[in-house]
C-alpha cells in the first residue's frame, strides 16, 4: 500500500468515525484537535563540572572515574587537587 493509499484510508476512517459519533468540524476544533502539538521538553542541563585537569578534561563526579583522573590518582595526586571551585 502506498503512502497516498494509506492516507486516503485514514481519511475514510476519520470520516466514518465522525459520522458514527455525529461529530462536526466545529466540535473537533473546539476540542483542540487542530492545535499544533506542544513542543518537546527541553533537554536537561548538563551536569556541572566538578573536576578539571590542566588539559581541560573534565568529570562531573558521576559514574566511573575517567582514565585521566585514575592515572593522576595512581601517580599519587589527590582527587581534590582537580576539584573545581
UniProtKB/TrEMBL annotation:
Residues 51-84 form the DNA-binding protein H-NS-like C-terminal domain. GO terms for molecular function: DNA binding. Coiled coil: none annotated. It comes from the Bacteria. InterPro entries: H-NS_C_dom (IPR027444), H-NS_C_dom_sf (IPR037150). It holds the Pfam family Histone_HNS. This is H-NS histone family protein. It comes from Cupriavidus lacunae.
